[in-house]
Structures are given as C-alpha cells and as structure tokens.
C-alpha cells in the first residue's frame, strides 16, 4: 500500500530519513547528504500555493562502482518502496566506452507489464529518449521512421531503433505515434524505470548508440551525429565511430 511522505508525522519523516542514512553508511556511502525539504508550487493562473514535503538523497558514482550502486538499491528498496515524495538514488554513471546496462521496468505501449530493453549481440541499437510534448524531439523521431523505411529491408534485424518516451502515460504516446505514422521504430514508455538517472539523461531528445558488442559508442543530442545511416553501417562492418572518443 502506497503512502505519501508529506502525510507522515514529523517523527515518522525523521525516522525514515535516519533509516536511509543508515543504509547509505552501511554501503560505504556515508558522505551522501539526506535532506528533508519543502517544495511549493503556484500555477500562474491560480492563487493557491500547493506544497509538499520531500526527502532526497542522491549521488552519482563512476561506472566502475556499479556493484556498490546495485547493492545500495537492493538494500534501500524495502525501506522506500511505495512511499511517494522520496527521491533516493545512487547510480553508477554509464557513458561512452562502457557496456550497455539493460534498461528495466519500462512498458510497451500495449501493456502495463514491466519489460526490459536488452541488447542482442551482433546488432546495432539506437535508443532515443523523447517526449510527445518536446518540439525538438519530433524531427529526430521522424528521421528514425524514415531511416527504417528506406533501409529496413537491408538491415533486417541487425539494426534496432527504439523510441523511449518519458511522457506521463503510455496512452498519450501511442496516440501520438499513430497519428504521425511512426510505426517502424520499437516504442516503449519509461514508466517507473530509473533509466534516466542511470544514463544521466537530463533533457530530451537524447540518444544512445550501442555497437554490435554492446558497447555505448555515442551518447548525446541526435543532431551531433550528422549521418546515422553511415554510423549504423560502419558499426555493422566492425568500424569505429568517427568523431567520438571514450
């Protein structure tokens, strides 16, 4: 049963914060600050100020400390699971040169069941983080559709282009892609996945390009890759991506 941090008593909030701090310390993360703060919002068209009390404890680790991040996630899960208004996350920063880490707890647009986005050895995969409400995301998504329309028959299953929406619900995404005719890419909705934190996606559009061996070879704005078709073909041929350093 879910509960809200704002609805807890001051004593309960303090106790939960102490539990979080203890788990951090037990996992060699005692330097992470645990904060309780007040968030207040007032819409421009309204006079009422709405607020809530939040708990936050966040840190990014280098990729080689991914095991530590995973241990903490397992230890903290039973303590904060189901509590809204708690933002506790320790993630290993994964970037260019690192192996792709399977994205979990996303949904397809047809089902609410949690699924994963896995990389298949021998394939090149592009993951495009985007949103229906993001104007700069629309052109790259159309480009994804166009590339697969033109080259899909030759690439077959060796190239996968995945749209990963950060929208607030899957129904909105499904309606949008159907209206646009973007049926060629594989579409997912982020749902409850922590993939944006794991991969440090601060804004959209944001893409990741993964080579045939599962290594991340590019991460950033899609406009920074001028010829993705060439990138796909080069990677399929075992060539290194031009203009990118790990």
Quick tags:
Alpha-Beta Plaits, 2 domains, 246 residues, Glutaredoxin, 6 helices, 3-stranded mixed beta sheet, 7-stranded mixed beta sheet, alpha/beta
Characterization of this structure:
- With 246 residues, this protein is an alpha/beta fold.
- It has 2 domains: 3-92, Alpha-Beta Plaits, CATH 3.30.70; 103-236, Glutaredoxin.
- 31% of the residues lie in helices and 27% in strands.
- The chain has 6 helices and 12 strands.
- It has helices at residues 10-26, 66-80, 135-155, 170-180, 195-198, 228-236, and strands at 3-4, 35-41, 50-61, 83-84, 86-92, 103-108, 115-117, 124-130, 159-165, 186-189, 206-210, 216-220.
- The strands form 3 sheets. Strands 7-6-10-9-8-11-12 form a 7-stranded mixed β-sheet. It has a 3-stranded mixed β-sheet with strand order 2-3-5. The protein has a two-stranded parallel sheet with strand order 1-4.
- Helix 1 (10-26) runs antiparallel to helix 2 (66-80).
- The longest helix has 21 residues, at 135-155.
Q: Which residues form runs of ≥5 with pLDDT under 50? A: none
| Class computed from helices, strands and strand pairing | alpha/beta
Q: Which strand order spans the largest sheet, edge to edge or round the barrel?
A: 7-6-10-9-8-11-12
| Name of the CATH first level of the largest domain | Alpha Beta
CATH topology of the largest domain: Glutaredoxin
Count of all domains: 2
Q: What is the N-to-C succession of helices and strands?
A: EHEEHEEEEEHEHEHEEH
- Rg over CA atoms: 20 Å
**Main beta sheet, described?**
7 strands, mixed
Helix content: 25-40%
Number of helices: 6
Count of strand segments: 12
Give the name of the CATH architecture of the largest domain.
3-Layer(aba) Sandwich
Shape: globular
């Amino acid at each position: 049963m879910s509960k809200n941090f704002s609805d807890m008593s001051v004593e309960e909030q303090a106790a939960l914060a102490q539990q979080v701090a203890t788990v951090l310390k037990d996992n060699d993360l005692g330097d992470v600050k645990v904060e309780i703060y007040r968030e207040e919002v007032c819409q421009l068209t309204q006079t009422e100020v709405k607020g809530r009390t939040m708990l936050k404890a966040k840190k990014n680790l280098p990729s080689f400390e991914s095991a530590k991040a995973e241990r903490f996630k397992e230890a903290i899960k039973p303590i904060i699971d189901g509590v809204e208004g708690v933002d506790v996350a320790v993630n290993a920063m994964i970037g260019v040169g690192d192996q792709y880490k399977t994205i979990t707890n996303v949904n397809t647009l047809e089902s609410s069941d949690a699924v994963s986005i896995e990389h298949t050895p021998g394939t090149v995969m592009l993951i495009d983080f985007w949103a229906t409400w993001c104007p700069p995301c629309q052109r790259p998504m159309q480009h994804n559709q166009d590339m697969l329309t033109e080259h899909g028959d030759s690439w077959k299953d060796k190239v996968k282009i995945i749209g990963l929406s950060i929208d607030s619900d899957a129904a909105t995404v499904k309606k949008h892609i159907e209206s646009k005719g973007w049926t060629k890419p594989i579409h997912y909705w982020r749902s409850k996945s922590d993939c944006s934190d794991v991969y440090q996606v601060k804004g959209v559009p944001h893409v990741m390009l993964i080579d045939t061996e599962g290594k991340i070879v590019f991460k950033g704005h899609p406009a920074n890759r001028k010829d993705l078709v060439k990138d796909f073909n080069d990677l399929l041929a075992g060539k290194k991506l031009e203009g990118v350093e790990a």
